[in-house]
Amino acid sequence: MITRLLVANRGEIARRIMRTCRDRGIATVAVYADPDANAPHAREADLAVRLPGAAPADTYLRVDLIVAAALAAGADAVHPGYGFLSENAAFAQAVLDAGLTWVGPPPAAIEAMGSKVAAKKLMGAAGVPVLPELDPAAITEADLPVLVKASAGGGGRGMRVVRTLAELPVQVEAARTEAAAAFGDPTVFCEPYLATGRHLEVQVLADAHGTVWTLGERDCSIQRRHQKIVEEAPAPGLADAVRERLAEAAAAAARAIGYTGAGTVEFLAGPDGFHFLEMNTRLQVEHPVTEAVTGVDLVDLQLSVAEGAALDPVPPPVRGHAIEVRLYAEDPAHDWRPQTGRLRKFTVPGVAAEFTPVRGLRLDSGVTAGDAVGTHYDPMLAKVIAWGPTREAAARTLASAVAAARVHGLVTNRDLLVRLLRHPAFRAGDVDTSFLSTHDLAELARPLAADRAVRLSAIAAALAAAHADRAQARVLGTLPGGWRNIGSAPQSRAYDGPYGRVEVAYRTGRTGTTVVDEPGLTVGLVTTERVELLVGTLRHTFAVTAYDDLVCVESPLGPVALTPVDRFPQPVVATEPGSLVAPLPGAVIRVAAAEGDTVAAGQPLLWLEAMKMQHEITAPVDGVLTSLRVEIGRQVDVGAVLAVVTPAPASEDPS
Question: How far apart are CA 456 and CA 536, in angstroms?
Fold first, then answer.
């Protein structure tokens, strides 16, 4: 029996595993890198062990440190979660060699599927359809486009789409670098790129007594940068015969390698059928949708199997429909740029449970209000999951909850997720891996609040701020702000919003407050946190939350984040012409040019890594790299000057 379990992970999956352990009466041990010293998973565990350093390679990817932490804390079992070392056979073996219980499949099974190259060959021999493996050195024009993939790991890291032979060497090298940083293995391979397939996967669970469950399939087709953002179960629109063949192939894969525990077999489906992609020998990020439709706790079953228990002969049936969205700290409108900073507030209305199966609305989050989001780890803040008796009901519940969530302090993909869930093509089940390129990304990423809603939200913010000022006044605090016996110039406040600057001018007199240039608007109740505005006969209520440098306004018209404009701004320091500045904080991991080099517009000059993703910095124009101010390993802040490109002089017309 497991009595004390170390979770070799961080964030929401660590909290998820600990929740089930508490329900089972199992004590928990967390490990944490220095940036995670005050993270929720480290605070909530019964014991926590520091892993000195910040980079994953120095902390969460150190087999020796984690095994030593388990022994020092008196743990008798280790759960790897997902990511990091979860699919590292050497780690699993080290845990077993230390006399601890490994909550996962046997190392041999991990080894068999840990290399995507070897796994494809194994599945092909077992009769499961696979895409051909292509040697990067032997690819020709006829093979294009191809997908470069990391042999180890997953989560979209180490993957690149290549459409021309000229870019192949650069993208292969970039994939190798990213794979080595994320998984400790730089091996990559190529396969044909299918732009419009459906990403389907089957949840399997097996015990040590020969029973293999398949718990239905999931559709994870909507992805950005080859990483899933919307997942659902069951997959919409599949014929029953296809579901049966997927389940049979997944069960055959598990049996072929003597699998035990929870795992996922992934497939890419197209018009000609489906092809095996890989097997993830661990729990998946999207496991909550399977829990919602089956009613099982997959972590609980993992622990039971690890303790030697037998599964029931027949798995539970699938009932209803569940959809999950991943809330990321990123800006979809600007190339999915990761965001860093402090999460001021985070609430989702209607949540029935956190980290546990529920037929309703569920929240699994790795952060809480007040936590700082840095550059070292994945930018996912939370997963929001909704179950409904039908797919339409689940989508409607989830869209409403995410739209009404209060997420203050960080730019997120929330508005995109809501528009996805409400999109007619999604509602019709017409989804594939090209969804975000087929449909207008700019429209999907557009703020939920329209221009008029932003204007009304800014008015509410200005009036709430005026009320707050009067509430703090030391003298004549009962008089309205700006009150005069004789009418004079109105008071004004300005905000920067999603569509640009918004100016709000208002007057307060004997009959109340009026807003300049808003003849059809009547000001109702005004407090520091609540403002009512009547537009004609329609009353709108706005919830206002003000911080020092940010005002967040929520209403049924859509959430709006506003930045107050300083009436006396500080001078801005100008940068040199041609300067390339860091779009986000991160570490320089590659440099592809030197000072004095002649460069072409669009040529990659260097790469930043932040939140497990690489960001390419390119030359803005043809010219000369006259200054390179960083080197590999340098940590830079947003706005830092990385390099300077002096444009080439315009050629003179000889005529």
Answer: 13
Amino acid at 360: G
**Structure pTM?**
0.88
- Quote the CA–CA distance of 492 and 466 in Å, as a whole number: 10
Convert 576-587 to b/e letters by CB count within 10 Å (16 or more is b).
eebbbebbbbbb
Distance CA 520, CA 455 (A): 14
pLDDT recorded at residue 132: 83
- Looking at every residue in the chain, the average pLDDT score rounds to 92
Contacts (Cβ under 8 Å, ≥6 apart) of 386: 322, 323, 360, 361, 362, 394, 395, 397, 398, 401
Sign of the four-CA dihedral 105, 107, 112, 116: positive
Sequence-separated (6 or more) residues with CB below 8 Å from residue 359: 292, 295, 320, 387
Residues 108 and 404: their CA atoms lie apart, in Å, by 46
Q: What pLDDT is stored for residue 476 in this prediction?
A: 59
Q: Are 223 and 163 in contact (CB under 8 A)?
A: no
Cα separation of 620 and 647, whole Å?
9
Residue 135: predicted pLDDT: 85
Cα–Cα distance measured from residue 513 to residue 479, given in angstroms and rounded to the nearest whole number = 12
Q: In Å, how far from its chain's centre is CA 492?
A: 39
pLDDT score of 29: 98
Residues (pLDDT < 50) of the chain are 654-655
The per-residue pLDDT for 655 is: 47
- The answer to whether 192 touches 203, Cβ cutoff 8 Å, is no
Residue 225 CB coordination number (10 Å): 17
Closest CA to 543 of 558, 556, 529, 533: 529
What is the C-alpha to C-alpha distance for residues 22 and 284, in angstroms, rounded to an integer?
21
pLDDT (0 to 100) of residue 395 = 98
What's the chain's length in residues?
A: 655
Tokens representing residue 180 in the block:
């080595």
Residue with tokens 């997720």, as numbered in its chain: 417
What single string gives the DSSP state of each residue in 19-78?
Answer: HHHHHHT-EEEEEEEGGGTT-HHHHHSSEEEEE-SSSGGGTTT-HHHHHHHHHHTT-SEE
Say if residue 655 is exposed, middle or buried (CB neighbours under 10 Å; 0-12, 13-18, 19+): exposed
Query: What is the Cα–Cα distance from 312 to 535, expressed in whole angstroms?
Result: 61
Count of other CB atoms within 10 angstroms of residue 219: 26
- Which two structure tokens, joined as six digits, stand for 574? 């100008």
Q: What are phi and psi of 196, to 5 degrees?
A: -120, 25
The pLDDT value recorded for residue 355 is 97
**Does residue 629 contact residue 643 with C-beta atoms inside 8 Å?**
yes
What does the angle CA 299 – CA 301 – CA 307 come to, to the nearest 5 degrees? 110
Q: Which residues pair with 228 in a beta bridge?
A: 223
Backbone angles phi, psi at 455, to 5 degrees: -60, -50
Distance CA 616, CA 174 (A): 10
What pLDDT, on a 0 to 100 scale, did the predictor assign at position 482? 59
Which pLDDT does position 538 carry in this prediction? 97
Residue 304 CB neighbours (<10 A): 16
Burial of 427 (0-12, 13-18, 19+ CB in 10 A): middle
The confidence score (pLDDT) of residue 477 equals: 58
For residue 218, what are the CA distances in angstroms to 236, 251, 286? Answer: 9, 15, 9
Distance CA 227, CA 286 (A): 12
The per-residue pLDDT for 22 is 98
Q: What is the pLDDT of residue 425?
A: 98
